[in-house]
From TrEMBL:
This enzyme's EC code(s): 3.1.3.3
GO molecular function terms listed in the Swiss-Prot or TrEMBL record: L-phosphoserine phosphatase activity; magnesium ion binding
Protein name, UniProt field: phosphoserine phosphatase
Keywords of this entry: Amino-acid biosynthesis, Hydrolase, Magnesium, Metal-binding, Serine biosynthesis
Species of the source: Gossypium tomentosum (Hawaiian cotton)
GO BP term (any one): L-serine biosynthetic process
Length: 77
């Protein structure tokens, strides 16, 4: 399913919205974890009704000590 949020077109797999609704109906905490960017993840969390404090994404940091060193960190907010 394609949904539009501001200037983004977001593709959500069929059945995901229904799954999230069923989990929430059972009082199950739902988390969104992605390797994507915050700008893409927050709209998806909003569309699915997942609290932003339950959404996590990766942020790639680069350091120039001894060449290019990459560290992958998990962030939310």
């Amino acid at each position: 399913m394609a949904l539009k949020s501001s200037s983004l077109v977001i593709w959500i797999l069929p059945g995901i919205e229904e799954l999230v609704k069923k989990l929430k109906a059972r009082n199950t905490d739902v988390y969104l974890i992605s390797e994507g960017f915050r700008q893409m993840i927050n709209p998806v969390a909003s569309i699915l009704g997942i609290q932003q404090e339950n959404s996590f994404w990766d942020l790639m940091l680069m350091s120039s000590l001894r060449g290019v060193e990459e560290k992958l960190l998990l962030f939310n907010k």
